[in-house]
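Hallway conversation turned thread

IA: we were arguing at lunch whether anyone had actually written out ABC-type Fe3+ transport system end to end. Turns out nobody had. So, for the record, here is the sequence (288 residues) and right after it the C-alpha cells. Reply here if something looks off.
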Amino acid sequence: MTLNITVDLSKYHDGRLDEQLANSNVHVDSVILQTLHDFPRWENQGALLNYAPLGFDAIDGAYKNAATAAYYGVYHLAWQLFWSPPKLPNITIREFDDFLRPELKNKIVLTYPNDDDAVLFAFDLILQRHGIEWLDALLAQNPRWVRGTGTAVTLILTPNRTEAATFTSFTGFAPIPGSNYSFPTQTQFVSWPQTAAILKDARHPEGAKLLHSFVLSPEFQQMRGWPVRHDVPVADNFSQLPLKDIPSTNPAAFGRFMADRGRVERLRFFLEDRIGSAQGLSPLVDDF
C-alpha cells in the first residue's frame, strides 16, 4: 500500500481543506491536526465520515464525539522544558521560573506564541499562574524568537550556538545526546490529543480507516508515549507517569482553549504587541 502524507502546519492544512470543501473537490482522505476547534465545525458542515476505528470506545470521552465517531484524539503531544546540559552545566530546569535564572540570559529560544496556538496556550497557563511580572522578567532575559517548534530544538542541539533552553518544543521521550527534558509540577503544562477525522467524500475511505485503526493500535500507542486509550498502559520502559496521574497537565483543556477564538485572538495580539510579529520564512524551515 502506498501512503501519501502531506506535512504542514495545521493552521494551513485547515484552510486548504476548507477550500476543497467549498469547491466540492476533496482529495484528502484523513486529517490529523492540532486545530481542534475545526473538527466540530467540519462535522456540522457534514464533511466528516462517522467511523469508529478499533479502540474508539477506549478513547477518553473529552477527546471525541462519542455519539457520532466523526473525530477523535489519536495520540498525545506536550511541550517539554528542554535544555542542553553541555551549554548549561550544573543547571537543572524543573519549572518555568528556572527560565528567569541569570545563567539563562541570552540563552533561551522560544517559538512565537502569536504563530502557534499550542505555544500560545502555554503562555496562557503560565500567565494565569505567574502573572505579567513573569512575562516582563522573561523578556528581560532577551530570548530569541523563532518560527516553528523544531527550530528551537535544532538551535539548542547545535554546538556552536548560544541557545540552550526552551519550553515550546516536544522532542519525544527517547534520549537525545547532549540534551535533557522535564515537565513542571508547580504550573500547568500544555498537553493535548492530536485529533483525526476521515472526510465523508474521501477517495480512499477504506485506506483511511485502516490508517486510523493502526494509529490507535496498542503497539503504536505505546510507541508514542502516552496512549489516548485508557485500556492501553504506558510501555514498561516508559520513563513518565501515565498522563492521567500527572496533576500539572490537563490534555482536555487545550480543546476548550482553541474553541474560544475570541480569547485566543485577544491573547495572541496582547503578546504580539509585546514581542513583535512573527519573523522568518516558514515554521517548517530552520531559518537561522
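OS: looked through it. The mean pLDDT is 95.
IA: good, adding that to the notes. The domain at 10-76+192-245 is CATH 3.40.190.10 (D-Maltodextrin-Binding Protein; domain 2).
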